[in-house]
Amino acid sequence: MFACVHAPGLPEEQSCALVDLAFSFSPRVEARMPDTVLADITGTGYLFGPPEKAAARLAEEARRIHPEPRVAIACNPDAAVHAARSFPGATVIPRGKEREALGFLPLDYLVPSLAGIDEARSAEILSTLRSWGIYRFHELAALPMPGLAERLGPEGVLLQKLAQGASLRALIPVRVPPGFGASADLEHPVDLLEPLLFILGRLVHQVCAGLEGRALAAAELRLRLRLVDGTEPLLPVRLALPMRDPRLFLKLLELEIAKHPPQSPVTALFLFADPARPRVLQKGLFTPVAPEPEKLELLLARIAKLVGPDNAGAPEILDTHRPDAFVMKRFTVRFPGHEPVRKKAECSLGFRIFRPPVAATVDTLDKRPKIVATRPSKEQKTSVRGRVLTWAGPYRTSGDWWDANPWARDEWDVVLSDGGLYCICQDLQSGSWFVAGVYD
Amino acid sequence: MGAVLDKKSIEAAVAARVGNLFAPSQRVSQQPMATGIPTVDLLTGGLPRGCITEISGEVSSGRTSFVASVLAEASRSQECIAYIDVTDSLDPATMRQAGVDLDRLLWVRCGGKLDQALRVADLVLQGGGFGITVLDLAGVPPQWVRRIPMAYWFRFRRAVENKPCCCILVDQTPCAGTCAALLLEMRRDETVWSGPPEFRLLTSVRFNVRKKKPMGLQECAFESRAETGICNVSVTRGPRRVAPASRRH
User: Fold this and answer.
1) How far is residue A279's CA from residue A220's CA, in Å, rounded to a whole number?
2) How far is A123 from chain B (nearest CA, A)?
3) Is A381 in contact with A397 (CB distance < 8 Å)?
4) Which of residues 298-337 of A touch B (CB under 8 A)?
5) Helix, strand, or coil here: B153?
6) What are phi and psi of A30, to 5 degrees?
7) Chain B contacts of A353, Cβ < 8 Å?
8) What angle do the packed helices A51-62 and A15-23 form, to 10 degrees?
9) Quick check: A355 and B89 CB within 8 A?
């Protein structure tokens, strides 16, 4: 049994209210037009009673949205739609009586989109039918099908089925994006981590159970805490890959709370998860060892707690000639697939950079460095001191002169008497010397 | 009730269920990791997996060039690499030039904090999954490194045992003691320059690698070219000393 509710002239922005109304009667709802919804109420006789009572109840509920709703119940979905759009009030069409009930409707009341026919083609067909003297549903329904098919094609046959109330199709249900969240109001404010995690664990399991029920995973978690002072800080946990492990989620949330501890006791918790399709991965037999994504996520969170979130990741070199230009991006595991094996590049001489560059005092002779010594300080652990035995340079490098932060320096490769092979530089803007790094 | 169970009676009682309880656990032999330098591979047979390899040497002794070559070889095999940088000295450009896939490199910058670096190393080794874990203590003064309790090295060794992971420790003086299965000492032999003095260029540096542990073939050398390639020079059998006077700066 199918129930159709039609609210003539309902604005499109209020159509969601109509959809919500239909969902309160059935979980399978089709909403192809903004002012009409169709619900599958098969098997709801014990809930809403016989079709007449169900139609009356639907009409009563629909009056909250529209002053004059039209409701129709029929065994055929398209017949229910035509009846709701054509007859005022509540209409119930018994099984087998669809053709008779819809027979006297004019062809203008036909809804070709239900059969998947576009407007232009349907207008053409209706014009042809009128030219034949066909004006009503029953006249179209009575035409012989082979002849109709020959003259009007398959669209004509589909329209005839609609007029007969005998079309066969499945409902196209509305997909409501699911939301996954859980909350807990605390009887007493909590200011310790252990009891907070105990309550949070219950919420996490609840959310994960909801995700598992829909065969989904979480791409991001958001924990909102309501504090005694009225503030509601939000703690997001972004996951590199969709996951659904409640123990991992609890650990990640614990690390996040430890990183950003609330300033006052907590009175309520709200946990939300953004759903995503779980990852599907087919590993090969001979793939090299790689960290599991769940374990890697936890490892990165623990490392970030120790050294800071910006100090752990994969380096990405920027497209510039500026020395030591790179950014840290999130480290993720790339499972080896069919990527080509990189040809081994010729190895270069290793270089260790001093960050920040070590300020140095350089005695020069004929504009060449003669003695290099770094200034000892509390921050500088690196000590470079010695006489220059061999040198190469200067080699000038500069850039970003069009920018607010240009650089220009002369570089020297020197061997010092302390045994090290260093790269020392003189900044051309300030004239100061520094040791950029050591070849190793 | 005063019966004392001896080892043989315990073994006999549980042998049928759990086998030999008191036999030492068998170490799973694993394929060693190539270093990318044929002479060093010949010297060492490759870096052993499931063990700690210690690379020590003074400044400019070739440790970073060697490690870059090993990491390049590992990323070529599509393994993940963890680099724990105590003094934040890693140069991504050098690594990329050496052939390291930076997307497979987890770089942890510890900002000079040795205790943080040791804790991070422990987390990474216990977590597993990385083909190579490098703990770079090269920039840490030796007196600080010597103060690291031996318990850390025992713990790290236990963490990598029987795992397909290679743990590389880079420092100025050896500190892991018996926990390191392979100890390589590196030294700079010769720096090669090219061109007249006014336009001199650093061309290559020749390094010497001495295997101090385990015993066997002792030394080899390799040459690392500035911004070009490594070419292998020689493998020597037995100890060989290079007189300081013959070194070219």
Assistant:
1) 14
2) 59
3) no
4) 298-299, 302-303, 306-307, 311-317, 324, 326, 328, 331, 333-334, 336
5) helix
6) -115, 135
7) 89-91
8) 150
9) yes
Tally of helices (H runs) and strands (E runs) in chain A: 11, 17
- Taking an 8 Å cut-off on Cβ atoms, the answer to whether B127 and A291 are in contact is yes
- Residue tagged 């054509």 (tokens): A86
What average pLDDT does chain B have? 83
CB B86 within 8 A of CB A333: no
CA distance linking residue A225 with residue A87, whole number of Å: 53
The alpha carbon of residue B216 and the mean position of all alpha carbons in its chain are separated, in whole angstroms, by 18
The segment(s) of chain A belonging to CATH 3.30.70.270 are 2-164
Distance CA B236, CA B219 (A): 6
Q: Which of residues 186-245 of A touch B (CB under 8 A)?
A: none
CATH 3.30.1490.100-classified regions of chain A: 184-334
CATH second-level architecture of B30-187? 3-Layer(aba) Sandwich (3.40)
Residues 6 or more apart in contact with residue A290 via CB below 8 angstroms: A333, A335, B79, B80, B129
> Kind and range of the H or E element at A80?
helix A77-86
- Rounded Cα gap, residues A391 and A385, in angstroms: 15
In terms of CATH architecture, what is A184-334? 2-Layer Sandwich (3.30)
Rounded Cα gap, residues A167 and A174, in angstroms: 20
Report the amino acid identity of residue A279: R
| Token couple for B216 | 């066997």
Helix, strand, or coil (residue A118): coil
Beta-ladder partners of A72: A4, A91
All residues of chain A having their beta carbon less than 8 Å from the beta carbon of residue B110 are 307, 311
A12-21, A33-42, B118-127: segment of lowest average pLDDT: A12-21
Question: Which distant-in-sequence residues (6+ apart) come within 8 Å of B196 by Cβ?
Answer: none
Domain A2-164 adopts which CATH fold? Alpha-Beta Plaits (3.30.70)
Q: How far apart are CA B177 and CA A127, in angstroms?
A: 96
Global pTM reads 0.68
- How far out from the chain centre does Cα B34 lie? 12
Conformational region of residue A203, where left means phi above 0, alpha means psi within -120 to 50, and beta covers everything else: alpha
Confidence of residue B1 (pLDDT cuts 50, 70, 90): very low
- Identify the CA nearest to A165 among candidates A77, A282, A260, A268: A77
Q: Do A350 and B111 touch (CB under 8 A)?
A: no
Does B57 have pLDDT greater than 90? yes
Cα–Cα distance measured from residue A301 to residue A309, given in angstroms and rounded to the nearest whole number: 8
Report the distance separating Cα B240 and Cα B249, nearest Å.
Answer: 20
Chain A, residues 348-387, CB within 8 A of chain B, namely: 348-355, 381-382
Q: What is the pLDDT of residues A168-214, one digit of tens each?
A: 788 888 876 666 888 888 888 998 999 999 999 999 988 888 888 77
Closest chain B residue by Cα to residue A312 = B108
